[in-house]
């Protein structure tokens, strides 16, 4: 009995879809060849929403509309037929579509795989058709970038030359930029930039201790930044270098002192087997012939 109910439900759904298309087919066959408009680009962010606007030339009195997703497969998203708006069609956007009364389609929340082409077929009161194609590109939100400081030359307290490396993982269409904090200049001279702006070279002096730089990473829909003060890394690097210098001096001196001590002990007056015997004889003679 249960399987009969399942089959009956599937037949009802199929009948409903066939009924919808049966209403549209005479209209489409009777309408003249549609005029197409292409090239509209829409950008969205994962987790956000976008509005796909249905536009046509002035004087076009829209009566019906059909929204389709064209990639990776053609899917029916929404329809407007005689003022009745419908979006409950089985597609990957089911539950994420909203058809406005101006026949623009809202999609959201967006997912990474939602990029693709969409089309809307508009039919006016005289049976003329207008087709519009839109291309949607969905981007991830840009995370906060990671900035690393690599010291090239450090001669404290005079100068410090460093390379600032900025990086974000797995984000497409990324643009890198640098800005010196506290200034109105949002750009850095090109001769100090490397690898498409991802690396910045700076030369600092004692007067630049508080100088900070921002790495600004952006894509077409979002941006993020991180601030770094390179002189702090120069100072730490200088401390590490002086500690190494101390070790380079102290360790050889300690080794020389240890070797000198061992040498003195081995080559001393009572070291070695023969010298031990001589020392023992001298001690015996001194005990046998004590001083009077």
Automatic annotation (TrEMBL):
<feature type="signal peptide">
    <location>
        <begin position="1"/>
        <end position="30"/>
    </location>
</feature>
<keyword id="KW-0325">Glycoprotein</keyword>
<protein>
    <submittedName>
        <fullName>SLAM family member 8</fullName>
    </submittedName>
</protein>
<keyword id="KW-0472">Membrane</keyword>
<dbReference type="GO" id="GO:0045577">
    <property type="term" value="P:regulation of B cell differentiation"/>
</dbReference>
<dbReference type="InterPro" id="IPR036179">
    <property type="entry name" value="Ig-like_dom_sf"/>
</dbReference>
<keyword id="KW-1133">Transmembrane helix</keyword>
<dbReference type="InterPro" id="IPR007110">
    <property type="entry name" value="Ig-like_dom"/>
</dbReference>
<dbReference type="GO" id="GO:0002232">
    <property type="term" value="P:leukocyte chemotaxis involved in inflammatory response"/>
</dbReference>
<keyword id="KW-0812">Transmembrane</keyword>
<dbReference type="InterPro" id="IPR015631">
    <property type="entry name" value="CD2/SLAM_rcpt"/>
</dbReference>
<dbReference type="GO" id="GO:0038023">
    <property type="term" value="F:signaling receptor activity"/>
</dbReference>
<keyword id="KW-0732">Signal</keyword>
<dbReference type="GO" id="GO:0016020">
    <property type="term" value="C:membrane"/>
</dbReference>
<dbReference type="InterPro" id="IPR013783">
    <property type="entry name" value="Ig-like_fold"/>
</dbReference>
<feature type="transmembrane region" description="Helical">
    <location>
        <begin position="246"/>
        <end position="267"/>
    </location>
</feature>
<feature type="domain" description="Ig-like">
    <location>
        <begin position="145"/>
        <end position="229"/>
    </location>
</feature>
């Amino acid at each position: 009995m249960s399987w009969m109910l399942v089959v009956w439900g599937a037949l009802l759904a199929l009948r409903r879809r066939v009924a919808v298309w049966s209403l549209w087919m005479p209209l489409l066959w009777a309408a003249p060849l549609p005029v197409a408009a292409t090239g509209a680009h829409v950008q969205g962010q994962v987790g956000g929403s976008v509005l796909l606007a249905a536009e046509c030339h002035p004087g076009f009195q829209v009566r019906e509309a059909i929204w389709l997703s064209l990639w990776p497969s053609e899917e029916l998203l929404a329809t407007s037929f005689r003022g009745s708006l419908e979006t409950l069609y089985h597609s990957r956007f089911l539950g994420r579509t909203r058809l406005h009364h101006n026949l623009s389609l809202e999609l959201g929340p967006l997912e990474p795989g939602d990029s693709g082409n969409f089309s809307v077929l508009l039919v006016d009161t005289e049976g003329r058709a207008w087709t519009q194609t839109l291309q949607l590109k969905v981007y991830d939100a840009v995370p906060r970038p990671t900035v690393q400081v690599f010291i090239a030359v450090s001669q404290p307290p005079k100068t410090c030359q460093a390379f600032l490396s900025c990086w974000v993982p797995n984000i497409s269409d990324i643009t890198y930029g640098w800005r010196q904090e506290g200034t109105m200049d949002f750009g850095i001279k090109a001769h100090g930039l490397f690898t498409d702006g991802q690396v910045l070279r700076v030369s600092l002096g004692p007067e630049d201790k508080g100088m900070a730089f921002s790495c600004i990473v952006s894509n077409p829909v979002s941006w993020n930044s991180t601030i770094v003060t390179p002189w702090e890394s120069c100072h730490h690097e200088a401390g590490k270098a002086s500690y190494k210098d101390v070790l380079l001096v102290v360790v050889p001196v300690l080794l020389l002192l240890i070797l000198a001590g061992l040498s003195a002990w081995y080559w001393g007056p009572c070291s070695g087997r023969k010298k031990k015997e001589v020392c023992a004889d001298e001690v015996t003679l001194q005990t046998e012939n004590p001083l009077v």
